[in-house]
Amino acid sequence: MENLYLIAILSAIISFISTPIVRKVAFIFKVVDIPKDNRRVHKKPIPKLGGLAIYIAFVAMVLLKKGPIDKPELGIIIGSLIIVIGGIIDDKYNIKPWQKLMFQIVAAFVLIVFKIMISVITNPISDVNLYISITNFIAIPLTMIWVIGVTNAFNLIDGLDGLSAGLAFIACITMTIVAFLSGRADLEVITLTIILGGAILGFLPYNFNPASIFMGDTGAQLLGFLLAAIAMKGAIKSASALVLAVPILALGLPIYDTIFAIIRRKVNGKPIAEADRGHLHHRLLDMGLTQKQVVIIMYLISAVLGLISVIVLQLTNKRAYMVLAIVIIAIAFLAWKFGLFKHKS
C-alpha cells in the first residue's frame, strides 16, 4: 500500500513539473486556443497541449514502477502514444473529424493486438456471476466502439476549466475502489489507475479555473482512451459486457453527455460532428452559474454515479443491470426536462 502512495505522489510531481515546460513549448510552437465564437468560455488565448504532461507522467511511472512491463501495458503505452500524436496534430492544425477518427481506430486496434479487448460478457438474467465468452467477430467491433466512444466522450465534454480532467480523476478513484472490492484486487489495474490519477492531480492546479493551460484534444482524448483501456484490463474487465454496467456508471457523465449530443444533433438535422452549446455545462452556465460552480456540480454528479457503480458491484448480475437501467432512464428523463435534446447554437 505504501508503494502505491509513493507511485501516486511521484506521478503527480512529474506532471506538476512537466506542465509549465509543456506550456512554454505550446507558446513557442503557437499551439494556442484563441476564442473565436460564443462557445468559448475563456476570453483570452490559452496554450494547449497540457495532455502531453499527463502522458509523460503516466508513461514515466509505468516504466519506473516495480516489476516488468507486461504485454497489455505495452499496448496501452503504444496506443496512447498514437492518440497523443493525433491530438498534438489536431491541437496545432485543427484536423477534420474523420482524420481524428483514424488515429483513434489505429490506437484501438493496437489494444486489440495486445489482447486488451472485451472478450467476455456477463449474463444479465442470471443471479450468479456467469460469464459468456464472445468470438472475435463480436469482440473486436465491440472493443472498437467502446474505446472510440469513451475517447470522444471525454473530448466532447472538455468545455470548461478543469472539467474533463476532474471527471477523469473521479473516474480513477472509482475504478481503483472497484478494483479493490472486486474480490480479487487486481494490483495491475489499481497501479494504472493510481498512476493516471496522480498525473491528472499534478496537472489540475494549472487547469482549474482560471486555467493557465488547456489539455487540448491531446489530453482529453488521452484520458478517455486510457480509462477505456484500463476498464477492459484486469478486475473490471468482467464487467465490460454488452451492457457495460460498472464502467458505464464509473465513466457515466461524459458518456451520457455525448449520447445526448448525438441524439440532439440528429433530431435537429445537424451533423454529429458540428459543435453546439447544448452540452450540460453550457446549459448550467446559461442559468447564471459561474464556471467553478458548474464544474463542482458536475464533479458531484460524477461522484454519485461512481458511488452507484461501487454499489452495483456488490449486487447480483440481474439486480446490477436493473439498477443500470433505472439510472439510465432517470438520467434520460432529467436530460429531456433540462432541454439537453434541444439544439442551441
Describe this structure in words.
It is a single chain. This protein is mainly α. Helices cover 68% and strands 3% of the residues. The protein has 13 helices and four strands. It has helices at 2-28, 51-64, 71-93, 97-113, 136-156, 163-181, 187-207, 216-232, 245-250, 252-267, 280-286, 291-313, 317-338; strands at residues 32-33, 46-47, 120-122, 131-133. The strands form two sheets. It has a two-stranded antiparallel sheet with strand order 1-2. Helix 1 (2-28) packs antiparallel against helix 2, helix 6 runs antiparallel to helix 7 and helix 6 runs parallel beside helix 12. The longest helix is centred in the N-terminal third of the chain and has 27 residues, at 2-28. It is globular and about 50 Å long.
Helix content: 55-70%
Tell me the structural class: mainly alpha
Name the strands of the widest sheet in spatial order.
1-2
Main sheet summary: 2 strands, antiparallel
Instruction: Please report which band the strand proportion falls in: under 5%, 5-15%, 15-25%, 25-35%, 35-45% or over 45%.
Output: under 5%
